[in-house]
Amino acid sequence: MSFLDYAPAPESRAILSLRPSYGLFVDGEFVDGNGPAFTTISPATEEGLTEIATADDADVDRAVAAARKAYDRVWSKLSGSDRGKYLFRIARLVQERARELAVAETLNNGKPIKESRDVDIPLVAAWFFYYAGWADKLDHAGLGPDPRPLGVAGQIIPWNFPLLMLAWKIAPALASGNTVVLKPAETTPLTALLFAEILQQADLPPGVVNIVTGPGATGQALVRHPDVDKIAFTGSTAVGREIARATAGTRKRLTLELGGKAANIVFDDAPIDQAIEGVVNGIFYNQGHVCCAGSRLLVQENVHDDVVERLKQRLTTLRLGDPLDKNTDIGAVNSAEQLERIRELTAAGEEEGATRWSPPCVLPDAGFWFAPTIFTGVQTSSRIAREEIFGPVLSILTFRTPQEAIAKANNTPYGLSAGIWSDKGSRVLAVADELRAGVVWTNTFNRFDPASPFGGYKESGYGREGGKQGLSAYLAPAGGIR
Amino acid sequence: MTRLAVPKTYKLYIGGKFPRSESGRTYEITGAGGDFLANAAQASRKDARDAVVAARSALKGWSAATAYNRGQVLYRIAELLEGRRAQFVDELVRSEGLTERRAAAVIDTAIDRWVWFAGWADKFAQVLGNGNPVAGPYFNLSVPEPTGVVAVIAPQAGEGHSLTGFVSAVAPALVSGNTVVVVASRSAPLSAISLSEVLATSDVPPGVVNVLTGSPAEIAPWLASHADVNAIDLVGAGALDWVQLQIDAAETLKRVLQPEDGPGAPAPTLARISAFTETKTVWHTKGLL
């Protein structure tokens, strides 16, 4: 045992008691789904966790009807301060059950417990707390006096931050006075269903939030449903495009938070040790399953060798394994399907001439795993420099001048996020101005806060989540919907 | 003996120049009474693509201009229009069939809209942007930035649509630093081209506004599907197959404003400025003392 080896320190699963099966959450109660139930698994071990219901078109219809009824009869008539109080209750219940939710999230998603415990779940509570306070202050949201909710919001969320994405969607929707039908990702429904229990504990009026589980077809039914006023989607750009087509010509309002291929730019005057930590956090956080991940490292040419060497050194200290272990840095890839995509794209990277490197790393036998991987000598035309891999894979490119860095950073149809590492304040400000990305981190990366708007330029989608701007996705001016 | 008038050839406005359509096509513009007014250029797909190239080239300079400067440039348009009121009244009377009094009211409104939007140039970012109190040692600021190249299908009907409607659709996109390719009123394009002459002789840089005349039904699909167009305003596309245009626009996830009907559309609002902006949020790390 070297000084870098740690004894196992698994978080106890005892805090979590799952039911053998979960139904859909419609009109305040768990009900059976018409579709075939399926087993949701732990991607780290492939063990089955519980049975999940599948919502078909009729189930989605029932959920939308419940949301409409709740909107008409209850939620739209409630005062802002009462809506806010429900959200404060939810925030507190999330805090009270935080460890249980963290364990469930890690089991079902594969992410390290230190991330679900210290980042995901605390942010979930923060999101509800932040938007709770907005509920009776909507006159100040920037849409003029007395803005109106849209009605029933259909929300479709991804598997990379299951409960956090739920919070990003539900908190502003409810604060603004909308009711919700939410569809969690097919592979990560667990925490959404625990959240439904929290809503029961909070005594939220039935139908205000409905949760329908199932595959992509369930989401399509929600998108196409004629009585849905608003669609909010986080996921791939390909599906975002389909949704934009499906809602074209309708009165449905749409916000999309889609893919990214963020540049993380390291200048030669950067604090290199901090930059290395930021680069690692940028791409290996959450196994790289992050739409805003810093998947393209742009290093100034004169420090390239030094940065790559230090980066390799740092990667050899990362611990991959049991996500429930408190010392684990890299957890499991969420699904066999995603693992296959990562394998395919990394193989393409090698074929296109880039040099592949991974630290020595033993992968568990069961489950879906991928070792942290970096590519050097990457061409801008390579697939691994252009396509979103959504895995622990970093493509390293170089630049000489700030202008070249900016041009390369912007040379993508995406525009979600970017990072800048430099100790020169004036340069940081100037470069941040030029980057076509919705979120720019300078000398940090992957920071999230409910007060801070998040969302993309170009093909990374439209609309913002978080902050005051996040409210306008769920409100219309008093004069009517434009 | 009355003097024989010298009629004007109405052409396109692309990249600060006034070319004919590369297709060589024109179409006949008639007045409200059916009388011949002019042969306007009938823009083609190639003209539309040229206009997008011009708009893209102009984007860097226009979006990087200071807000104060953009405000002054837009205000200058109002100044020049004021001096050419009579020409626009005359054109509106002939092409839209308005009375002189009503035509005068239309040009007054158009001028006042430029003044109103010009004033927003150095203010909208203060109203739409904000600092964010995040839980950590970061200076976190959200600011609206221009979306990029915006295609506009200008209003096609309603009193004053050919001028006030046109201005009210184009000006808000310009305020934040977008550049524009606009398809003018098919039936009454003369005011739009005369306005282009005002733009060309004011301080608006070439390519910031590009004006196409012809058939919106023919041109709009090329703009909606063009990969270098970032947003499309379908305000005047109500009579077209605009649902298909919105579907085309989804391929590159363009920002889309749906058609608006009714006299006076579109209304001058801050929402039309913000519709073609992107919020950029920058997290600046604070150092330890």
Structure summarized in a few sentences:
The complex is a heterodimer of chains A (482) and B (289). Chain A has helices at residues 57-73, 80-96, 98-109, 113-134, 162-175, 190-201, 216-224, 237-247, 272-284, 304-315, 336-351, 383-386, 402-410, 425-434; strands at residues 21-22, 24-26, 29-31, 35-41, 48-54, 148-149, 152-156, 179-183, 209-211, 230-234, 253-257, 263-266, 296-300, 355-357, 373-376, 393-399, 417-421, 439-442, 461-462, 475-476.
Could you walk me through the main structural features you see in this protein, from its secondary elements to its overall organization?
The complex is a heterodimer of chains A (482) and B (289). Chain A has 482 residues and is an alpha/beta fold. Helices cover 37% and strands 17% of the residues of chain A. In chain A, the strands form 5 sheets. In chain A, strands 14-15-16-13-12-17-18 form a 7-stranded mixed β-sheet, with helices on both faces. The mean pLDDT of chain A is 97. Chain B is an alpha/beta fold and 289 residues long. Helix content of chain B is 44%, strand content 18%. Chain B has 10 helices and 10 strands. In chain B, the strands form 3 sheets. In chain B, strands 7-6-5-8-9 form a 5-stranded parallel β-sheet, with helices on both faces. In chain B, helix 4 runs parallel beside helix 6 (161-175) and helix 8 (216-225) runs parallel beside helix 9. Chain B is globular. The model of chain B has no long low-confidence stretch (mean pLDDT 97). The A-B interface holds A 126, 142, 237, 240-241, 244-245, 248-249, 256, 258, 413, 415, 428, 432, 435, 437-444, 447, 449, 451-455, 457-459, 461-462, 464, 467-469, 477, 482 and B 127-128, 130, 132-136, 138, 140, 142, 147, 230, 242-243, 246-247, 249-253, 255-256, 271, 278-285.
